[in-house]
C-alpha cells in the first residue's frame, strides 16, 4: 500500500509541476476577456478550432490597434457575466444586449451592433402566429434578450417556458418537438438555420425590440480597457474595417466557418476535422481526473482517519466536513469557488484550480465517508488484540486497522475513481475546456449534436474501461 501511495503522490507532484511550467512559460496577458463561445455568428469556434465570429474579430482587431493583449475564457453566458462581476475576468464580449438592469452592474463600451428579436418554430410546424403558442412550451437561452422579450409577452400569449445554457441544445429541443418555439437574436437564428438547423424564423422581416450589443466591464473598474475598446472601435468604424467584419460573417455561407459539408456528415469526418480539439479536451479531462483522484484520495483518507480518532473534536470536524461537501451539488460548489469566493478574498482563482479544488472537496468527502466506514468494518477484536500486546492506539491503527481497512475499501476507491472521471464534465460550466466543453463548442459550430456526442460518449467509455482495468489490477496486487 505504501508503494501505491508513493507512486500516486509522485504522479500528482509531476502533473502539478507540468502545469506550473506551462503557466510560467506563457506570456501574461494584460486582460482576461470572457465570452459565450456557443453563439454563432458572434462567438464560436471555426473548423480550425480557433475562436472567431463578429465579436472576436472586433476584439482582436481593436486589441492589435490599441496595443493590449488578452486571454479568452469561453463559458456559458451566465457564468461569463458572473465572472466579470466577481472579478475573475476583466471584460465580456458575448453578443450581450445593453439593458438598464445590466447598466447597474456593468459599464458598457460604445454599442457595436444593433439586433432584433425573432421567434422560430420547427420546419413544418402548424404554429403560424404567437396566439398559437397558448399552452405550448417555448425554449429560451438563459440571460439573453430573446428570453427577456419572451417573458414580457408570456402572460399575453399563455405559453410555458423552459431554459437552456447553450443554443444547440435549445434548438434541438424545438426540432425534437419537446418545445414548440424559441425566441432569440435574429442573426443568430438565421446563422443556425443556414448551418442546417431545421427551424423556420416567423418574423424575419419585422424583428421585435431592436437593441444594441455592447462590450462590458465591471462597473467602476477597468476604465483603461473600456477606453481602449471605445477608441479602437471608433477607428475600425471610421476606416470601414467594421463593415468588412460584419459582411464577412453575415454575408458568407455558414460552411465557410464550419468546414466542408462532408466533414460534418460522418463520424470519421468529424473526428478528422476536430482530432486536435478532441485530444486537447481529453488531455484536460485526464489531467483533472488524475490529479483529482490522487489529491481527493489523500484528503479522503485524512478525513477518514479523523473520523475514527479518539479525539471527539477531530471526529466532529470530520463529520461536519463530510456532511457539507457531500451535501453540496458539484456544480454549485464549482460556481461558489470560481465565482463567489474571489469576490470575498479579492484574488482571482484560475478555472483549472477552482475545478481541481471542487473535485478534491467533493470527491474527498465521499472518499472520507467510506474510508471511515472501512476502518470501522475491521473486527473490533483486532484493536483489542493489538492493545493487549502493548501497542498504543495510534500504533494499533497504523499497523493493524488501517492496512486491513484499506484492503476492504479498494472496490469503493475504484468506484470513486470512475465517478471522479465523469464528474469532470460538470466543470465545463466554469469554462474548463475539457472533453464535454469541447463537444459543446464543436456542436455549436456544425450542429451535428448526435454524431459529436456519440464520439464524446465513446471516448468516455474507453477511458472508463481502461481506468477500470487499471483499478482492478491494483486491487489484485493489494490482495496478493
From TrEMBL:
One of its GO terms (biological process) is amino acid transport. Residues 1-19 form the signal peptide. Keywords: Cell membrane, Membrane, Signal, Transmembrane, Transmembrane helix, Transport. SUPFAM superfamilies: MetI-like, Periplasmic binding protein-like II. The chain crosses the membrane at residues 282-308, 320-341, 450-470. Belongs to the binding-protein-dependent transport system permease family. It is found in: Cell membrane. Residues 282-471 form the ABC transmembrane type-1 domain. SMART domains: PBPb, PBPe. It holds the Pfam family BPD_transp_1. InterPro entries: AA_ABC_transptr_permease_3TM, ArtM/GltK/GlnP/TcyL/YhdX-like, Iontro_rcpt_C, MetI-like, MetI-like_sf, Solute-binding_3/MltF_N. It comes from the Bacteria. This is Glutamine ABC transporter permease protein GlnM. Gene3D superfamilies: MetI-like, Periplasmic binding protein-like II. One of its GO terms (cellular component) is ATP-binding cassette (ABC) transporter complex. Its main location: membrane. CDD domains: TM_PBP2 (cd06261). It is a multi-pass membrane protein. GO terms for molecular function: ligand-gated monoatomic ion channel activity.
Amino acid at each position: 500500500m505504501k508503494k501505491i501511495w508513493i507512486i500516486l503522490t509522485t504522479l500528482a507532484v509531476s502533473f502539478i509541476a507540468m502545469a506550473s511550467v506551462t503557466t510560467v512559460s506563457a506570456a501574461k496577458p494584460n486582460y482576461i476577456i470572457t465570452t459565450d463561445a456557443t453563439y454563432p455568428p458572434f462567438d464560436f469556434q471555426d473548423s480550425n478550432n480557433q475562436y472567431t465570429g463578429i465579436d472576436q474579430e472586433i476584439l482582436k482587431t481593436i486589441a492589435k490597434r490599441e496595443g493590449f493583449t488578452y486571454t479568452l475564457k469561453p463559458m456559458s453566458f451566465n457564468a461569463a457575466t458572473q465572472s466579470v462581476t466577481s472579478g475573475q475576468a476583466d471584460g465580456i464580449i458575448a453578443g450581450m444586449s445593453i439593458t438598464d438592469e445590466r447598466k447597474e452592474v456593468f459599464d458598457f463600451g460604445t454599442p457595436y451592433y444593433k439586433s432584433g428579436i425573432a421567434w422560430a418554430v420547427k420546419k413544418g410546424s402548424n404554429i403560424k402566429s404567437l396566439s398559437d403558442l397558448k399552452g405550448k412550451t417555448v425554449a429560451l437561452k438563459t440571460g439573453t434578450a430573446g428570453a427577456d422579450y419572451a417573458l414580457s409577452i408570456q402572460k399575453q400569449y399563455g405559453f410555458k417556458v423552459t431554459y437552456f445554457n447553450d443554443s444547440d441544445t435549445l434548438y434541438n429541443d424545438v426540432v425534437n418537438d419537446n418545445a414548440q418555439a424559441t425566441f432569440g437574436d435574429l442573426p443568430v437564428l438565421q446563422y443556425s438555420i443556414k448551418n442546417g438547423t431545421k427551424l423556420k424564423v416567423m418574423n424575419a422581416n419585422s424583428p421585435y425590440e431592436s437593441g444594441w450589443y455592447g462590450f462590458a466591464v465591471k462597473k467602476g473598474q477597468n476604465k483603461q480597457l473600456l477606453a481602449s475598446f471605445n477608441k479602437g472601435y471608433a477607428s475600425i468604424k471610421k476606416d470601414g474595417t467594421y463593415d468588412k467584419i460584419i459582411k464577412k460573417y453575415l454575408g458568407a455561407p455558414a460552411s465557410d466557418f464550419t468546414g466542408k459539408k462532408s466533414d460534418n456528415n460522418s463520424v470519421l469526418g468529424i473526428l478528422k476535422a476536430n482530432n486536435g480539439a478532441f485530444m486537447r479536451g481529453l488531455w484536460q479531462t485526464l489531467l483533472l481526473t488524475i490529479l483529482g483522484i490522487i489529491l481527493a484520495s489523500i484528503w479522503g483518507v485524512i478525513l477518514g482517519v479523523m473520523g475514527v480518532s479518539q479525539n471527539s473534536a477531530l471526529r466532529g470536524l470530520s463529520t461536519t466536513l463530510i456532511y457539507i461537501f457531500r451535501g453540496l451539488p458539484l456544480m454549485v460548489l464549482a460556481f461558489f469557488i470560481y465565482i463567489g469566493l474571489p469576490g470575498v478574498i479579492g484574488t482571482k482563482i484560475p478555472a483549472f484550480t477552482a475545478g481541481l479544488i471542487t473535485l478534491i472537496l467533493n470527491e474527498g468527502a465521499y472518499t472520507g465517508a467510506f474510508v471511515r466506514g472501512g476502518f470501522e468494518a475491521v473486527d473490533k477484536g483486532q484493536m483489542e488484540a493489538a492493545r493487549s500486546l502493548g501497542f498504543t492506539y495510534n500504533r494499533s491503527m497504523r499497523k493493524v486497522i488501517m492496512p486491513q481497512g484499506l484492503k476492504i475499501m479498494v472496490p469503493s476507491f475504484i468506484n470513486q475513481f470512475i465517478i471522479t472521471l465523469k464528474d469532470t464534465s460538470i466543470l465545463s460550466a466554469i469554462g474548463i475546456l475539457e472533453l464535454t466543453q469541447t463537444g459543446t463548442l464543436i456542436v455549436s459550430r456544425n450542429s451535428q449534436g448526435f454524431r459529436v456526442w456519440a464520439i464524446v460518449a465513446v471516448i468516455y467509455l474507453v477511458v472508463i474501461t481502461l481506468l477500470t482495468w487499471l483499478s482492478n489490477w491494483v486491487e489484485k496486487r493489494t490482495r496478493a
